[in-house]
């Protein structure tokens, strides 16, 4: 498998390239044993990976969160949700494929799942608008949350977007109002709502479906009021200073956990979620299940009130 390496992963790329070359030599007719050398290089590559990923800067974490091979919403749904039935349309204007949604079963319980889907190749990324939802996407999310509330099904949301789509058409159709109503709906449903930031959590486009009882965040994901590039353009009129913006905005899971913005950091496999997709599916599934169990048997009004208090407390403590 051809792996995509980020700029700061160059030492790892070189080591793993040597390992592959040696393995290919070992598959030939050569009688020279290279097994020991391969093992030594594998240990060296693992050590380099541990060293690099133990000290990632906020900008490097941004790059990991955007990694093209990182699992997306559809990957998690395929792995964790049984009998998933996708539901489309907002019943007002149209279908927005940047937002996936539907019903299914998660470890024995019926749930509604809503998430941003970026796509995994050029065609699907264009089809999904790179995960940037238009107003109809958020109105679809509201429709599905209200359905979940009616039938007593918990809601799981998977956040992975650079932000809501900023196009003229979206603004003409009420983008800000659609986001506000989605946030309001998150606060008003009486069923448990668990949100996971699996990649980028960008601006109101993320908060619209992440105003949850429990907000989980993958270790190398980001959650921010604006993308580092946009923030740099606003603050310094220079998008090339995105690295400075990322550092100063406190966008990492570790910073946000310290501030009480998120509730749980989900540990990723060494080297990021894209290096071991089956492992991250199991890890994240366990954390979501644990979060949902916290609300088993609680009255709907108590669940809703706890959600209100959670977000009011953020304003009091910051």
Provide an overview of this structure:
- The protein is of the alpha/beta class.
- It has 2 domains: 7-55; 62-317, Alpha-Beta Complex (2-enoyl-CoA Hydratase, Chain A, domain 1), CATH 3.90.226.
- The chain is 51% helix and 15% strand.
- It has helices at 10-26, 35-53, 58-65, 73-80, 122-127, 135-151, 168-172, 175-188, 203-210, 228-236, 242-249, 253-259, 277-293, 300-317; strands spanning 82-86, 99-106, 109-116, 155-161, 193-202, 214-218, 222-224, 264-266.
- Strands 1, 2, 3, 4, 5, 6, 7 and 8 form an 8-stranded mixed sheet that branches.
- Helix 1 (10-26) runs antiparallel to helix 2, helix 6 (135-151) packs parallel to helix 8 (175-188) and helix 8 (175-188) runs parallel beside helix 9 (203-210).
- The longest helix is centred in the first third of the chain and has 19 residues, at 35-53.
- The radius of gyration is 21 Å and the shape is globular.
- 40% of the residues are buried.
